Amino acid sequence: MTQAPGNCAEKRRAIMTLESLAQSDRSRPSERLPVLDILRGFAILGMFMVHFADEAPGGGAIGETIRQAMILFVENRAYATFAIMFGVGFAIQLHSADTRGEDVRWRFLRRLLGLVGFGVVAAALYSPQLIGYAYTGVWLLVVRRWSARACCSSPCWPARR
């Protein structure tokens, strides 16, 4: 059992130590998880490969075999990995903000607005999927404090349709 400091000087020293620890925690650069960045990079690389393979000239049996292999081994995994990384990034941001006692909603909405901007450009060129991620992100903010049971029993839950 830790004993409380007895005199004022000891109390002041203990408070200053706690304040300096709290200050150093706030001034510390954000810690990134390299594995998440690597997985995100693989997902983006996979999506580039799929998009460029769709536009690549060629044909015949070899071209069709390569196209099918891209769909089987790259496309579905790249989209799934990117979607998972979106959710994991969202969860990490919210957890970090809750730990620091910050309100992350406006910052996250600003990021989603930027994602919509990229999504509009991407939709004009190829695919509107980024707009869907931004739309999903808004709903994640709405349901982020719901229990798993509440999410699954909600009439908005996709599995219930």
How would you briefly describe this protein structure?
The protein is mostly helical. The chain contains six helices and no strands.
Describe this structure in words.
- The structure is a single chain.
- With 161 residues, the protein is an all-alpha fold.
- It has two domains: 70 residues; 54 residues, no CATH class.
- It is 78% helix and 0% strand.
- The chain is built from six helices and no strands.
- The longest helix has 41 residues.
- The protein is elongated and about 60 Å long.
- Rounded to the nearest angstrom, the radius of gyration is 23 Å
Structural class: mainly alpha
**Main β-sheet, in a few words?**
none
Overall 3D geometry? elongated
The overall pLDDT average reads 75
Uncertain regions spanning at least 5 consecutive residues: 1-6, 21-28
Strand content: under 5%
Taken together, the total number of domains comes to: 2
Number of strands: 0
Distance between the termini: 56 Å
Order of helices and strands: HHHHHH
Percent helix range: over 70%
- Total count of helical runs of at least 4 residues: 6
